[in-house]
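note to self: dont lose this again. the chain is below, predicted strucutre after it. 237 aa total, dont forget to put it in the shared folder this time
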Amino acid sequence: MFYHSAGSADMIYFILLIPIMILSAWAQIQVSGNFRKYSQVRCTRGMTGREAAEAVLRANHVSGVGIRPCAGSLTDHYNPQDNCIYLSEPVYNVATVSAVGVACHEAGHAVQYAESYAPVRLRSAIIPATQFGSQASFIFLFLGIILYFQPLLFIGIVLFSLTTFFQLVTLPVEFDASRRAIRTIETSGLLSASETDGAKKVLKAAALTYVAALLMSALQLLRYVLIFMSRGRRGRD
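---
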C-alpha cells in the first residue's frame, strides 16, 4: 500500500474493499469446508483420484501425461513443463468425492494443453510478461507516487494491469477445466448423481476463489488509476 494517494481514491477503494474481502474469505471457507466435507464421502465405485484423472485423459484421447503424488493438501496442479498432473495426498490414492472432483479438474487442464485450448495458450504466452510486471510495477508505482511523477506512475499502472489481465484470462481456463471434469464424471459414470453434486460444489467453491482474486486485483488497479487521474487534475489546476 502507498500512503500518498488522493483521499477520494482511498474512499472508493475502501468502500469496495470490504465486500471483496468478505467474498474472498467466504470463498476460502467454502473451498476448505466443501473439500473437507466431501473428503469424508467415499465414492461408491471406489475410484481413486489417480484413476479418475486417468479416466478423463482416456475419455478425451490424451496420452503421455504423467500422474504423480505431491505433498500437502489442496496443492494439486498440472505442470505443462513436464506434462504431469500432480495430486496431493488426500487426492492421489484416495477414493472420495473430493478426490475424484479435484483430480478430474486437474486432468481437464492437461486436456486443455493437449487440445491447444485458446485461453490456456494465451495464459501461457503472457506468463513471462506477467511475472516481470508483478515484480516491477510496485517499484514504478512507489516512485511515481513518492516523487509525484506521472510518467513513472503510468508505467507502474500498465505493468500492474498485466497481473489483472492474467487473472482475467485464468477464469475461463479454470471454468473450462471444471466443465470438462464434470462432463467426464457424468458421461463416464465415475460418480453417482448425488456424488456428482458434491464434486460440483467442491469445484464451484474453488472457482470462486479465482473470481475473488480477480476482483481484488481489479480494485487495486482501479485505485492506482484514480490516483493517477486525481494527480493529473491537480497538475492542470
